[in-house]
Amino acid sequence: MAPLLPPPAFLKLSAASLSLLAAGALLWWRRRGSPRRPSHRWVASTDFGALSREACVAAAVALRCGEAMRATAGAHATLKDGEGERAGIDPVTATDEANEALVYRTLRRAFPSHEVIGEEASAKLGAVPAVPRAVPTWVVDPIDGTQNFVHALPLSVVSIGLCIGGEPTLGVVYDPYLEELFVGVVGKGAYLNGRKICPDRCTTLEKAMVLTDVGYERSAQGVARISAALAALLNANTFALRMVGSSVQALTWVAAGRASAFYIGFGKKDCPKPWDWCAACAIGKACGVTFQRLDSDAPFDLTSSSCIVASTPQLAATLSELLRLIVRA
Question: Any idea which UniProt keywords this protein has (predicted)?
Answer without folding.
Answer: Hydrolase, Magnesium, Metal-binding
